[in-house]
Amino acid sequence: MLALTREYEETHRRSGSGTADRRPAPISVLPAQRGSTKPRPRSAAQELTHLLFDRDDRERVHGGWRRLLAGKAFSYLPELTPDERTAVSYERLRLVNSTVDDPAALAHDARLLAGLHEWTGFVDGGLCTLASIHYNLFMGSLLDHDFYGRELSAFTSMQRIGTFLCTELAHGNDVASLQTVAVFDRATDGFILNTPNPGARKFMPNTSLIGGPKSAVVAARLLIDGEDQGIFLFLTPLSDHAGHLPGVTVRQLPHRTGTPVDHCLTSFDHVWLPREAMLEADHGRLDEDGTLTSALGNRRKRFLRSVNRVTAGKLCMSAGTLGMARAALAIAVRYAHHRHVGGPKTGQRIPVVRHRSHHGRLLHSLANAYAMTFLHRTVMDRFVAHQEAEREEVERLVAVAKGWITWQAREITTESRERCGAQGLFPANRISDLPGNIEGGITAEGDNLVIWVKAGAEMVFGHQVDPISSDTRPAAERDLTDLRFLRDLLASVERTWQARARIALRQGPSGDPVGRWNESSGAALEMVSAHASRLAADAFLEAAGQATDPATRKLLSNLCRLFLLQQLRQHTGDLLAEQRLTVQHVLGLHQTIDAVLAELAPHMMTLVDAFDLPDEYLAEVPIANAGYLDHYQESAAF
Questions:
Q1: How far is CA 510 from CA 225, 456, 522, in A?
Q2: Which pLDDT does position 41 carry in this prediction?
């Protein structure tokens, strides 16, 4: 039916005797083998790529996904209807699955899973969403419970696509109050899954018939003998090749912004499920007599443990938007170099990138993109290595990073689109869909503002701001080019907002918890923002210190300097009042930033070349190429 179908079939077809198999090489979840050969000297762009993309783990985490999206199956397909685009995303999901040597292991490999999102998000936002749901929320939930070791071949082979049903029409941010019920039926030793009212319909899962038969992990309130035991997950078949199963009602929602996905409203009318449908683990198991035993003492903790996969999901959402931001910048910077405008002399034409008003904005975005990438790597390291006792701290760290990265990604893609002018509005130039797709990442796996409010409430008194350096020289003796000085100023900003939040909370109206928090929340959110920026700065500084080539180290240090100066710009009043900055510092800030921009401007192409986007991808983006004007005559995309 679609152009992709032919490519997909060719990719999957095993040739006859004497002909090579054309399937993509499997992507392994095993550690990459390191050779003993002496590494070749790297260019500046190559060393930046090495630092950006997990260093010695780059090939294992990123290499396979990068090669996959360079294939024809990921080419831009113009003039498809929304449902056709959704069908293409499902076909690509199966292509992804065919390249993975162990789909179940992929669900347990947070780095590789995030890498999948990072490289597919900017090519097909729908695929990014579907992969996150199938591998992380669905497969991951099964494997995190006692389902491990059970028969999963229908899902690993994608005979059935997995989806995840948690939020409801009337319960989004307060999903812990969801009303879908799973009543334990002693007569049949099973469960009756039911949607008790219209507000309890599951909101936005991809449950249509597009993509083939589907099963879901459904979050429902377990009722045993009329007593609410809390929210647990239940494996529920939704459809087969003939349609939706009895008792399952699905209504497709209108198409949202960004790349289309088959979002639906889904409800259940007394659907019977077998005993083994309940996903059990230490947080909750049913004895043979139907008695619930749990290692956790209350229903909220049971719910949070049941949906624990949303933490890995935050890392995946962050990675997806991170890839989108870098792709948008790579396109915008390339276009800026070969888009010419009138120069100062009559008849002269100069690249628009020559203008500070143009390259300055892109350089600020580049500094943020590097900071976002290094922050994501640092947070991923912490997530992968954390112990159970660190769970709450790490979950908060992941939430803070997700909010900051996805918000920054939105700003970057919007800026990149604007710098491309009207050309950025055409989908063929691969930027216009990105801000809409990032909006989905901002809301998915925990709305950014909500998870930052939660983090702020925990950090007002439960967080110790990292101490500043031991340099005790007065501010007048410090320089705005000193990276450690700038980093310490950002830590001071974090400490200032924490102190304000504490004072506001203590002085808030007694007997009115909401009123007290309202007084403190603004300062608490500023504290979280400064905390995220400071974490990003620390990750940036660490990466710059790892550069082995002096020129690369200088380039990264300058970019980090630009990032820190821009982050501090809005806080100069507080820093001046607290005597962390002098009047001379504040008056000279703009000039200092301009000097850094001037030094970085000649290196913009090196900075985006380090993003390592496949040549095959860039070749299909008209404005990323010097001959973009020819596409108006040669390409049907316009």
A1: 41, 20, 18
A2: 59
Compute the mean pLDDT over every residue in the chain, rounded to the nearest whole number.
91
Model confidence pLDDT, tens digit, residues 531-554: 999 999 999 999 999 999 999 999
Tens digit of each residue's pLDDT (9 = 90 or more) over 215-233: 999 999 999 999 999 999 9
Q: Which letter, b or e, does each residue of 363-382 get, where b requires 16 or more Cβ atoms within 10 Å of its Cβ?
A: bbbbbbbbbbbbbbbbbbee
The SS3 assignment for 141 reads helix
Of 328, 382, 280, 205, whose CA–CA distance to 613 is shortest? Answer: 328
**DSSP string for residues in 9-55:** HHHHPPP-TTS---SPPPBP-SPPPPP-SPPPPPPHHHHHHHHHTTG
**Which pLDDT tens digit goes with each residue over 484-512?**
999 999 999 999 999 999 999 999 999 99
Range 338-342 average pLDDT = 94
Q: What is the pLDDT of residues 288-297, one digit of tens each?
A: 889 999 888 7
Q: What is the DSSP string of 361-396?
A: HHHHHHHHHHHHHHHHHHHHHHHHH--GGGHHHHHH
Would the CA dihedral through 337, 41, 598, 469 be positive or negative? positive
Q: Is 161 helix (H, G, I), strand (E, B) or coil?
A: strand
Euclidean distance between the first and final Cα of the chain, in Å? 22
Measured in whole angstroms, how far is the alpha carbon of residue 252 from the centre of its chain? 25
- CB of 164 within 8 A of CB of 133? yes
Contact 622, 635 (CB under 8 A): yes
- For tokens 């989004």, the residue is 172
User: Is 175 within 8 Å of 182 (Cβ atoms)?
Assistant: no
d(CA 141, CA 218): 11
pLDDT digits (tens, 9 = 90+) for 426-478: 999 999 999 999 999 999 999 999 999 999 999 999 998 877 677 888 999 99
Write out the DSSP string of 442-454: HHTTS-HHHHHHH
CA trace torsion 515, 520, 525, 528 (10° rounding): -130
When pLDDT is averaged across residues 553-557 and rounded to a whole number, the result is 97
Q: Which sign, positive or negative, has the C-alpha torsion 459, 462, 466, 472? A: positive
pLDDT in tens, 91-102: 999 999 999 999
Q: Kindly state the helix (H) or strand (E) to which residue 595 belongs, with its residue range.
A: helix 583-600
Angle between helices 550-568 and 583-600 (to 10 degrees): 140
- Could you tell me where the beta strands, DSSP code E, fall in 213-270? 214-224, 227-237, 239-240, 243-244, 248-252, 264-268
What would the mean pLDDT of 596-600 be, rounded to a whole number? 98
Q: What tokens appear for 158 in the block?
A: 């994608």
Residue 237 buriedness (CB in 10 A; 0-12 / 13-18 / 19+): middle
Query: Regarding beta strands 190-194 and 227-237, do their DSSP bridges make them parallel or antiparallel, or are they unpaired?
Result: unpaired
Please write the tens of the pLDDT for every residue from 165-204.
999 999 988 888 999 999 999 999 999 999 999 999 999 9
Per-residue pLDDT band at 1 (split at 50, 70, 90):
very low
H or E segment and range at residue 274? strand 271-274
Token code pair at residue 97:
């699955």
Dihedral through CA 611, CA 614, CA 617, CA 621, nearest 10? 50
pLDDT at 631 over 80: no
